[in-house]
Amino acid sequence: MLPPYLGPLLGLELDIRTSVEVVAHVLPGAVAALCGGLTALRSHRAVEAQSVPNLLLYSSAFLAGLFQTATHAPLVLDAGEPLTPWGAVLLHSTLAPVITVIALWLTATSAMAVFPGSSEPERPRRGRPRR
Known about the structure:
The chain has 131 residues and is an all-alpha fold. It has one domain (3-114). Helices cover 65% and strands 0% of the residues. It has helices at 3-6, 18-44, 52-77, 86-93, 95-114. Helix 2 runs antiparallel to helix 3 and helix 3 runs antiparallel to helix 5. The radius of gyration is 21 Å and the shape is elongated. It starts with a helix and ends in a 17-residue tail after the last helix. The relative contact order is 0.14.
C-alpha cells in the first residue's frame, strides 16, 4: 500500500495515475491487511487456527496478493527504461509476490488441516487380490 506514497520521498517516482495506484496497491493491500488482522484477532481469542473461516481469510489474502503481483507484471517487464527506473520498480513490485507466496502457503497448510486425508494418495495393495 505504501510504495506509491513512500517512493517519491526516497526519490523513486513512477509516473502513474492516482486511480491506478489505488486499484493496484491500496485495495489489495487493504484486503490482505484486513485478512491478516482478522486472522490474528481470531488466534488471540483462542479460536481454532485451522478452521474454514481462517482458510477463507488466507485464500482472500492470497487472491489480493496475486492480483497485485499480476497488475505489476507489465511494470517489471518495462523496468530499466527512462520512465521506469529499476529502483522504483523494485520498491513498487517486490512485496506483492512475498505476500502471495506466504498466503498460498498458509492456505495450503490450512486446507490440509481442515480437509484431512485428501492430500494422501491411496497406496496399492501388495500380494494376490482376494476373490
